[in-house]
What we know:
The chain has helices at 11-17, 25-52, 57-64, 66-79, 84-103, 106-110, 112-126, 134-143, 154-160, 162-192, 198-224, 248-265. The protein is an all-alpha fold. It has two domains: 24-109; 111-266, no CATH class. Helix 4 (66-79) packs antiparallel against helix 5 (84-103) and helix 7 packs antiparallel against helix 10 (162-192).
Amino acid sequence: MNTAPDEDPNEDSDKGSGKTPGKDVPPRRGRAMLTLLFDMGAPIAMFYVLTAAGLSSFNSLLLSAVLPGLSTVYQVVRSRHLDALAVFMMSITVITALASLVSGSPRFLLAKDGFVTGISGVWLLATTRANPPVVFMFARPLLEGRIGPNGESWTLLWDRLPGFRRIWRVASVIWGVATILDAAVRFVMAYTLPVKAVPALSGAQYIVLFVLLQVVTNVYYYRAGLYDSKSDLYDGLREEIPVIVVDRRLIGLRRERMDGGAVEGD
């Protein structure tokens, strides 16, 4: 993923059309949420349908893992853009499926989600010092134009506010540590719990992880002043404008002198 702070494919078009950055977020946000729900929920539902139809747990897991891959292919064809996150998810699915075919173990397939969140956590921590971190890149389409004294561009906020940069570095650490811990729990579940119980529990764990991280990070954002346009966080944007006080009587006196000089000249 490109983490260059000045490269925003929507920024120039927004400026040219007079749009406020992030104004077209709700449609994109809705589509992304529907895709996420499908990628999480469809494989779980398909697993239980297939096992109820008499397929083995291994074959059911293998076949249900195809759905997120098909979803990724559809998104790439539809948008004509190869997304790095989609490639990452598909790569994990393909690698774990091939490894499972060699081992023949359904538990290795169940551990796939642990690999996903574990590698994601390492990635988040590794980009903490990037300019900007990955968390910044994910949050920008959702929040840009909605925070700051005047809905300033995040490029401006990143360049001028050290506190703004610190917020996203701390958020990267929070998300990175949480997803690594989540991966550890998933590995334990995959190799200790009954096979048929793990897919449903794994799906529920995603919900718990997301809600918990949303609560923790938003409490941190609030305490750091991100949502308060009057907080000290934005002091770097408030430049003092020099005020020149002019005495009107002095201006009147100068006019009288100029008029008097003009009369004498005539």
